[in-house]
Specification:
6-stranded antiparallel beta sheet, mainly beta, 3 domains, single chain, 33 strands, globular
Length: about 475
């Protein structure tokens, strides 16, 4: 649990913004008149990350004509053509100027389409990331839209995320000029001194026309006048997505997939009342002893008795005696395949799994935990028997025998379970061939007094024409 407190020092010292400039503890970002990023200076590395005279921009290839399969094909002649920029002028305003985040809002158009970009820097945990949030209302046909990233680092090979590991690919060729990647792609200079990663939350097509340039495909609206003519409407409409810039020292490392995971799976906060809690200041159900392993999933097994853990090695290096620590002691552990079929045993000691892993290897473990308590008192529920007056559901063969709504309708008994549970509250449902619902008619219900109950839950329904019901206590 976190709370918000006032700070004595002037936090604005590290965040600066105007219409053509943003700065935080890590970056100085310059913006040109078209709203594009023309400069990124990494203050800690003392390096300019962009090619001089070039900008990170959205660009449009205006004649997107596939040959046979419009929805699937992007032609080499299209990506080799000269793209055009968005239409000037750009309307640039300071949208946020707060103590933890600053943001520029950039509004532009391209023919019938509207574009809003927000360039953001923050202070604190994710200050090493430049976010470009984009909203598109796209209505222009026959075009390919990309984001272009001309970096100062150059290399004939770029690194592309595969979801489980990564692969290196060279510049565009005659047959490999639009390639897939999941959360990120990276160019690191040939000496391995530094590099720049492009992270994204929902786009998967890339090309690399030059040693220092990556392009991320945002929209593909193909021209089509064949039997697939309807496909020339694909990708029209509203789109919201984010791509981010992350400069790093050295080559590709485990920090890049971690940053990409954080972008795609951000911490979600919610408001609650302040309380001491039962778990102390810090609690972790699961943690690893190395950043070399990425945990992709933690779930209950299909039979519900085990916890299933899926992970992979993210640096392309074999490792031995890695550990995963779990909140409770382990009773049993197995190694499984993706279908949750047991393939062998895995070492464990007390609350730790111990295992070896090969480069980029995915692994699945099933863990059964010993009984444990974390000090949270169990909720106590008391089921109240109601004086049922009617029936509300019936089997298919007798569907006309029950008139629940006054129009001869009822619920299908085949879909009604014996009980329904929501959170810690369970409702027992009656038998189909007996009365199992109570129609409100000024009924008096006696509540139990054996414990200090704090909440009363009803499982109810109604129809649109029915009278409103009031509950008095």
């Amino acid at each position: 649990m976190y709370d918000v407190r006032f700070e004595n020092q002037d936090t604005q010292q590290s965040l600066r913004i105007r219409n053509d400039y943003l700065e935080n503890d890590i970056y100085k970002v310059g913006i040109d008149k078209n709203g594009d990023i023309k400069s990124i200076f990494h203050k800690k590395m003392q390096k300019e990350l962009l090619e001089s005279g070039k900008s990170i921009r959205m660009c449009v290839f205006p004649d997107n004509r596939p040959e046979r399969y419009p929805a699937w094909e992007i032609m080499k002649k299209v990506v080799d053509s000269n793209p055009v920029p968005l239409e000037p002028p750009a309307r640039i305003v300071v949208e946020e100027n707060g103590p933890v985040r600053i943001s520029l809002r950039i509004e532009q158009s391209y023919k019938e389409s509207k574009i809003i970009r927000r360039i953001r820097l923050c202070r604190g945990g994710q200050d090493d990331r430049i976010d470009i949030l984009t909203e598109l209302d796209w209505n222009t046909k026959n075009c390919l839209v990309k984001a272009e990233f001309p970096f100062s680092a150059g290399n004939k090979d770029a690194t592309y995320d595969l979801g489980l590991g990564y692969v290196k690919r060279a510049n565009n060729t005659k047959i490999a000029y639009e390639v897939p990647a999941q959360y990120w792609a990276d160019i690191t200079d040939t000496v391995g001194d530094y590099g720049v990663s492009v992270l994204n939350d929902c786009k998967y097509g890339w090309d690399k026309p030059l040693d220092n340039t990556l392009r991320l495909t945002l929209l593909h609206i193909p021209h089509s006048d064949t039997k697939n003519k309807h496909q020339n409407n694909q990708d029209l409409g509203n789109h919201t997505f984010t791509y981010s810039i992350f400069g790093h020292k050295g080559g590709v490392n485990s920090l890049i997939p971690e940053k990409a995971e954080i972008l795609n799976q951000p911490v979600v906060a919610f408001v609650t009342s302040k309380h001491k809690g039962y778990l102390g200041k810090e609690f972790s159900f699961l943690k690893t002893n190395t950043s070399q392993v990425t945990v992709k999933a933690l779930k209950k097994s299909e039979d519900g008795e085990w916890f299933v853990l899926r992970l992979y090695e993210n640096e392309g290096k074999a490792a031995k005696n890695l550990e995963i620590e779990i909140a409770a002691d382990i009773a049993d552990a197995k190694e499984m395949n993706g279908l949750e079929e047991v393939t062998g045993n895995v070492r464990f000691s007390k609350n730790k799994l111990i295992f070896d892993i090969q480069p980029f290897q995915p692994k699945t473990f099933a863990v059964k935990l010993k009984e444990y308590s974390i000090g949270i008192p169990k909720a106590y529920c008391h089921h109240i028997d109601l004086p049922f007056s009617h029936q509300a559901w019936s089997p298919e063969a007798f569907k006309k025998t029950i008139n629940f709504d006054g129009k001869g309708n009822s619920f299908a008994a085949e879909l009604i379970p014996d009980s329904i549970k929501t959170g810690n509250v369970s409702f027992r449902l009656g038998k189909t061939d007996e009365k199992h619902v109570l129609k409100c008619a000024g009924n008096r219900i006696v509540l139990p007094a054996d414990k200090d109950y704090t909440q009363l839950f009803f499982f109810s329904c109604g129809n649109r024409q029915g009278p409103k019901s009031l509950i008095h206590h």
